[in-house]
Amino acid sequence: MAEQKLFTALREGDLTLPEYLAQAEARFNEREPAVQAFLPEDGRFERLHKEADALVNRHPDLINRPPLYGMLAGIKDIFHVDGFQTRAGSRLPADLLQGNEAKSVTRLKNAGALILGKTVTTEFAYFTPGPTRNPHHAEHTPGGSSSGSAAAVAADLCPIALGTQTIGSVIRPAAFCGVVGFKPTHDRIPRDGVIPLSPSFDHIGYFTQNVAIAKIVAGVLIENWQPKTADHKPVLGIPEGPYLDCTSDLARARFDATCALLAKAGYELRSVRIMIDFQNVRDRHNLILAAEAARVHEVWFNKHPDLYSAKFVELMERGQPVTNEQLKAALAARDDFRAKMRQAMIDHNI
Fold first, then answer.
1. Residue 182's domain is classified under what CATH number?
2. Per-residue pLDDT of the chain (350 residues; tens, 9 = 90+)
3. Does 227 fall in a domain?
4. How far is Cα 10 from Cα 71, in angstroms, rounded to an integer?
5. Active-site residue flag, 76
6. Which of these, 145, 211, 217, 255, has the minimum number of CB atoms within 10 Å of its CB?
7. How many CB atoms within 10 Å of residue 253?
8. CA 329/CA 335 separation, integer angstroms
9. Same domain as 117, residue 52
10. How much is the pTM?
11. Which domain holds residue 255?
């Protein structure tokens, strides 16, 4: 059943929640052992059936059922969820990592979603991967850090999954796994109840199997969401220069092929030399990320340095020497860069 039709069938009663959960359990038992998108949970579907019964009791009539009624959602394991332990892909003592439920999770629940479980994340949403495999090719990475969430949606284990992005941790696994990944503007989805990595860059995002469902979820998660229908196709900017020069020959060939498809579909593509100082932008981003991560993890790291991975230790060692003045200057330079990017888009009508 197509995902869009599934939403409608559940809300209108053409498919009951017990029937849906039976189908979901069969898929989960067949595919999850190979994909390993979720953290283990005893009695997962027994719990879900009880939660489904409670949902039916709250919404016995077909009229005015909430928009995500009965839909299964995966939650990246740096979000706090009532009834679930947060581990964040880490070896730190579990009691250090717990907290109040994330507002984004509560919004999903209030909209009728059922939490299928916690999805695998790289350690603290940074680098060191977990066991998750790409559903399309077991020897390929699903991308990180929101690896489990992207793989879960790609494997049709759930139609919705929450993730986070500090560098590329929504759009990268979405691309690798062939699903829709949407990362709205910073703080459009609240970050409370989520273990941070770099607060200046951390975004909440999510995965779905198509854009139509992404639009529905946006209305649930994003405050003051106002869907709009464009009366014309937007002009798309091509950032020629150092940014695209970073790509491999294969990646550039794929990018150019995609641009050709967009042009054929009627979009105007406009090449613009922009981000000429891209190496400085990247260096500044890495400095801010490391400095903020070092501050977030200072107390835990001082007590348990041996429980962090080698990659995270490297991040801490880069961030610890950064002074508050250096961090403040880097953040100011970031704001200046953002302003220049906005102006460039205005100047070129992108």
1. 3.90.1300.10
2. 467 789 899 999 999 999 999 999 999 999 999 999 999 999 999 999 999 999 999 999 998 899 999 999 999 999 999 999 999 999 999 999 999 999 999 999 999 999 999 999 999 999 999 999 999 999 999 999 999 999 999 999 999 999 999 999 999 999 999 999 999 999 999 999 999 999 999 999 999 999 999 999 999 999 899 988 888 899 999 999 999 999 999 999 999 999 999 999 999 999 999 999 999 999 999 999 999 999 999 999 999 999 999 999 999 999 999 999 999 999 999 999 999 999 999 999 99
3. no
4. 8
5. yes
6. 211
7. 11
8. 10
9. yes
10. 0.97
11. 235-273
